[in-house]
Design brief:
The chain contains one helix and no strands. It is an all-alpha fold and about 40 residues long. This is Putative D-3-phosphoglycerate dehydrogenase.
Length: about 40
């Protein structure tokens, strides 16, 4: 897994949303489930 930051246009709301998205995918990764936000 590769996680890369991108901060253009970062607002409190977007940071909260991105944090929730990352946390959800990390939980899925640990559980062996398919990721929701996978880039190929």
């Amino acid at each position: 897994m590769i996680i890369t930051p991108h901060i253009a246009g970062a607002t409190r709301e977007s940071i909260a949303k991105h944090t929730a998205m990352i946390a959800a995918d990390l939980q899925r990764y640990v559980a062996g489930e398919p990721l929701l936000y996978q880039w190929r």
